[in-house]
C-alpha cells in the first residue's frame, strides 16, 4: 500500500485542546487500492477522522468516444468499463440499443446471455473475494479464489477467444454459438465449484482472523444503503432484498428458481459472504438455463450491421456483479448515438467510503474499500 504524508495540521477538538492531525495519501496504487484509487486520509493517531476518495486516474472519456462511433463499434468500448465483468457491460449496452432500435432477440441468444453473465458473476466475485482476502493477509484464499476464476476464463476463451475483454454480446444476440461439448464442461465446473465454495467458506469465513478483521467493520445500515443509492452485494449485505433479476426481471430470468442472499449486519464480512452465496445461486441459474435452452438462431435475423435507430431515447438496466448497471442512449436518427451515459454501481457504492471509514483504523480502511468491490474502469469511465 502506497502511503505518502501530505501534511500535519493543528486542529482544535470540542474541548478546545490542540490535536495534531496527520493527512496521508493512500494510493493511487493498483492493485493495492483495488484500482487506481487515491484516498486522502485524515488520521488522529491510527483512527481515520476523514477519508476522501479521489478518482479520475483511469478516465478515458468512453461516453464521449461513443458519440463518434457506430452502435456496433461501441461494444468493444463497453468491455473496458467493468473490465472484470465485461459481459455485463456488453449486455446492458446492447439491451438499451435493442430497446431503441426495436430489435427482438432470439430465445437461444437470451439463454446464452444469461449463462455467460452468471459465469461472469462467479468470475467477478472470485476476483473480489480473493483480493479482499488478500487485504487481511489471507494469501491462501487469494490463490483458491483465482484458481476458480481461471476455470471460468478458460471456458470464455473456448467460447469467444478472449480472456478479459470479450466483445461477445452484440445488438440482436451474441457473436458465436457454443462449441461442441462446451455445456458439458460448464456443468462439470458448476458441480466442482460448489465443493470449492464450501471449502472457501470454511477456510476463510470460518477463520478467526478473518472474522476479527471483517466483522463489525464498515457497518452500513439498510436505510443508508437505500439513501445513498447503493446496490448489489453492498446493499444486500445490509439486508436490502433488491435484485433486478428478481424485482425488475428481464430476459428469461423469470423462468429460473433462485434465491437472493442477504446479510443482517451490513459489515465487510456480510458483504463479502453475500458474494460467496451468490456464486451458489449462479450455479443454480446456469444449470437451469442449460437444461432449458433449445436450438435456434443465436442472433437476430435481418438486423443491419449499420444501425440507424429512430430519433428518441432509451434506458435499460441489468443486475451486474456490483449492482444496478444502467445505460441511457439518445438517438438523433443517424448511425452514431447523440449521447451515451452509463449508470455505474461501482461509482455509487464508492461514495459510501467516507461514511463507512470514519472512526476505524487505517488497516480497517483497506478492508472497507475492498468490501465495496470497486472497479475503476467503471467508476471513471
Describe this structure in words.
The chain is an alpha+beta fold. It has two domains: 3-54, no CATH class; 62-343, Cytochrome-c3 Hydrogenase, chain B, CATH 1.10.645. The two termini are 24 Å apart. Strand 1 (3-12) and strand 2 (18-26) form a beta hairpin. Helix 4 (107-135) packs antiparallel against helix 11 and helix 11 packs parallel to helix 14 (362-371). The radius of gyration is 21 Å and the shape is globular. The mean pLDDT is 89. Helices cover 45% and strands 15% of the residues.
List strands and helices in order, with pairings.
Blueprint: E1 3-12, E2 18-26, E3 38-44, E4 47-54, H1 62-65, H2 75-79, H3 86-101, H4 107-135, H5 139-160, E5 169-170, E6 173-174, H6 182-205, H7 208-214, H8 222-227, H9 233-236, H10 244-247, H11 268-292, E7 312-319, E8 324-331, E9 339-343, H12 345-350, H13 353-357, H14 362-371, H15 376-380
Antiparallel strand pairs: 1-2, 2-3, 3-4, 5-6, 7-8, 8-9
Amino acid at each position: 500500500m502506497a502511503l505518502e504524508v501530505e501534511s500535519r495540521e493543528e486542529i482544535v477538538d470540542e474541548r478546545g485542546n490542540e490535536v495534531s492531525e496527520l493527512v496521508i495519501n493512500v494510493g493511487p496504487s493498483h492493485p493495492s487500492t483495488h484500482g487506481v484509487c487515491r484516498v486522502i486520509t485524515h488520521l488522529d493517531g491510527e483512527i481515520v477522522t476523514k477519508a476522501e476518495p479521489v478518482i479520475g486516474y483511469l478516465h478515458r472519456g468512453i461516453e464521449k468516444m461513443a458519440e463518434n462511433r457506430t452502435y456496433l463499434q461501441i461494444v468493444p468500448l463497453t468491455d473496458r468499463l467493468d473490465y472484470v465483468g465485461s459481459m455485463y457491460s456488453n449486455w446492458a449496452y446492447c439491451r438499451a440499443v435493442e430497446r431503441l432500435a426495436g430489435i427482438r432477440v432470439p430465445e437461444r441468444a437470451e439463454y446464452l446471455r444469461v449463462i455467460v453473465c452468471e459465469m461472469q458473476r462467479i468470475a467477478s466475485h472470485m476476483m473480489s473475494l480473493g483480493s479482499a482476502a488478500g487485504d487481511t493477509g489471507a494469501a491462501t484464499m487469494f490463490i483458491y479464489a483465482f484458481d476458480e476464476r481461471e476455470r471460468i476464463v478458460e471456458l470464455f476463451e473456448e467460447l469467444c477467444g478472449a480472456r478479459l475483454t470479450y466483445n461477445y454480446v452484440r445488438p440482436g444476440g451474441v457473436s458465436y454459438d457454443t462449441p461442441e461439448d462446451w455445456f458439458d464442461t460448464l456443468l462439470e465446473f458448476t458441480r466442482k465449484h460448489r465443493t470449492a465454495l464450501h471449502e472457501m467458506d470454511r477456510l476463510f469465513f470460518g477463520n478467526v482472523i478473518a472474522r476479527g478483521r471483517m466483522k463489525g467493520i464498515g457497518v452500513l445500515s439498510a436505510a443508508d444503503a437505500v439513501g445513498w443509492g447503493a446496490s448489489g452485494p453492498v446493499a444486500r449485505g445490509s439486508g436490502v432484498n433488491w435484485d433486478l433479476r428478481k424485482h425488475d426481471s428481464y430476459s428469461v430470468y423469470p423462468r429460473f428458481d433462485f434465491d437472493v442472499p442477504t446479510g443482517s449486519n451490513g459489515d465487510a464480512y456480510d458483504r463479502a459472504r453475500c458474494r460467496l452465496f451468490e456464486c451458489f445461486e449462479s450455479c443454480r441459474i446456469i444449470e437451469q438455463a442449460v437444461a432449458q435452452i433449445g436450438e435456434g438462431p443465436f442472433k437476430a435475423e435481418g438486423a443491419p450491421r449499420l444501425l440507424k435507430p429512430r430519433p428518441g431515447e432509451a434506458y435499460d438496466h441489468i443486475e451486474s456483479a456490483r449492482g444496478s448497471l444502467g445505460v441511457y442512449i439518445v438517438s438523433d436518427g443517424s448511425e452514431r448515438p447523440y449521447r451515451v451515459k452509463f449508470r455505474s454501481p461501482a461509482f455509487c457504492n464508492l461514495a459510501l467510503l467516507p461514511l463507512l471509514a470514519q472512526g476505524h483504523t487505517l488497516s480497517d480502511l483497506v478492508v472497507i474499500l475492498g468490501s465495496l468491490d470497486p472497479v475503476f474502469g467503471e467508476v471513471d469511465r
